[in-house]
Structure formats: C-alpha cells, structure tokens
Design a protein that fits this description.
Helix content is about 40%, strand content about 20%. By secondary structure, the chain is an alpha+beta fold. It folds into two domains: about 1-95, Nuclear Transport Factor 2, Chain: A (Roll), CATH 3.10.450; about 95-230, Glutaredoxin (3-Layer(aba) Sandwich).
C-alpha cells in the first residue's frame, strides 16, 4: 500500500514537468519552422492521446508532442457526438454581453423587446444588407446596433451621417433596406472610434458580427431561423 501511494505521489509530481517539457518542445519547434508560430498563445493536451491543441489568437490547430506535424480541421468526439473544435472556438470567441458599451450603439426595438441582440455592422457591407432584410422577420427583440466603419472612407462618411441623424434607426433602415442615402450630418463620433477599438480588441474583423445575451458570437450573415434559434437558446 505504501509503495502504491509513493508511486502515485511520484507520478503526480512528474506529470506536470512532462507536460511543461512537451509544451516547450512544441513551442520551440513550431516557432523555428513556421514564422507565424513565433507567438503561440496556448498549448494544451487534447482528450486524444498524443494530440495537442495549439492556439494562435482564435485559431485552433493540432500537433504531436514534438511539433513535427500540424493539423487543421475539426476534432470530433464520436462517442459523445461532439465537435470539440467548434465548442472550443465558440468559447474563445464569446463576448460577455455586459462588456458591451450600449451607449455606443443605437437600438431598434420590435414587439416587447425582451430579447436582446448586439450586431456590429458596416453600412457598406452587402452581407449586412441581406442580414437586415432577414432581421425584419424577428419579433420581440431589442437590437443594439454598433457601427464599425471598416470598409473605407465612404463607410466612415455613411456611419457618421447615420450616427449623427436625429433618428438613427430610421436613417439606418432607410439606407440598408431602401437604399436611401443618409443625409449629411455632423456630431461627436467618439462612439464610432470606441466601436473600432472594441472590434480590434475582440478581433471582430468582419461584418455582420452578432453577439447574443449568453455570449455566443456569430460571424457572418445568418438567416432569420438561425437567429430565432439562438435567441431562444
């Protein structure tokens, strides 16, 4: 019994050092061989023996214990019918709804407005226009719309004119749904600057990007049925 206890104690002390050594080896070899991997954010053991997750930003890849091979794709748990890669990325990209500064957004309320959704959009984004048409089908929701002009100078002009309009929601809908250009306007646009800084911090690089109350973040234009499903969840 004493020998078994001693062995377990020895293993508990040795395993962390082995894991650290493996991580150091992976970091060293990948950094030497692939310049993009000089800044690895995290190396962790996966549930699959001998396979390690390598995280760079929100990108997840997999490698062996020595960094000799690199895999890009999804790791599936067939026993529990889970996509472990999708679950990991969803967790990495989640945004706490409380971290959103709603003062930097304008709101559009439909029905009782009980459910909440934040959307980051550029007025010159074609996918955003398609998404806005689908969003009209969703009821009982408050949409917090954050303007992030990332598609050029014209996006900056349109965002300013919409943000500075007397009725921001109307100016937005007139443009996105009816192609009616927002009238020239000027005001304090610190909110737009703050939105761009937030987008940079959370690596929001495309529009539309949706953030739901539970923190789920969805990049890209999804249809009304998908939005409804996530709002209900």
């Amino acid at each position: 019994m004493i020998k078994k206890t001693t062995l377990l104690l020895a293993l508990s002390l040795t395993l962390p050092f082995m894991a650290q050594a493996q991580e150091a080896t992976i970091r060293k070899n990948l950094a030497e061989r692939i310049p993009a991997f000089t800044q690895i954010d995290e190396v962790t053991q996966t549930p699959m023996p001998g396979l390690f997750e390598v995280r760079v930003g929100n990108e997840v890849l997999y490698t062996d214990a020595e960094g000799n091979y690199l895999l890009q794709g999804s790791l599936l748990d067939t026993r529990n019918r889970k996509n472990l890669t999708d679950e990991r990325i969803e967790k990495l990209t989640a945004i706490n709804f409380k971290d959103l500064n709603l003062k930097n957004a304008f709101t559009i309320t439909r029905g009782n407005g009980k459910r909440q959704l934040a959307v980051f959009e550029d007025p010159n984004c074609g996918y955003c226009k398609r998404f806005e048409k689908d969003l009209q089908k969703i009821n009982n929701v408050t949409v917090h719309l954050f303007l992030i002009p990332i598609l050029g100078a014209d996006s900056e002009d349109k965002s300013r004119n919409i943000w500075c309009a007397k009725d921001k929601a109307k100016a937005w809908n007139d443009w996105m749904l009816n192609d009616s250009l927002p009238k020239a306007a000027s005001c304090n646009t610190d909110a737009l600057t703050a939105n761009l800084e937030f987008a940079k911090k959370y690596r929001i690089t495309g529009t539309p990007t949706l953030v739901f109350e539970d923190g789920t973040r969805v990049p890209g234009a999804i249809n009304a049925q998908q939005v409804e499903k996530l709002l209900t969840r």
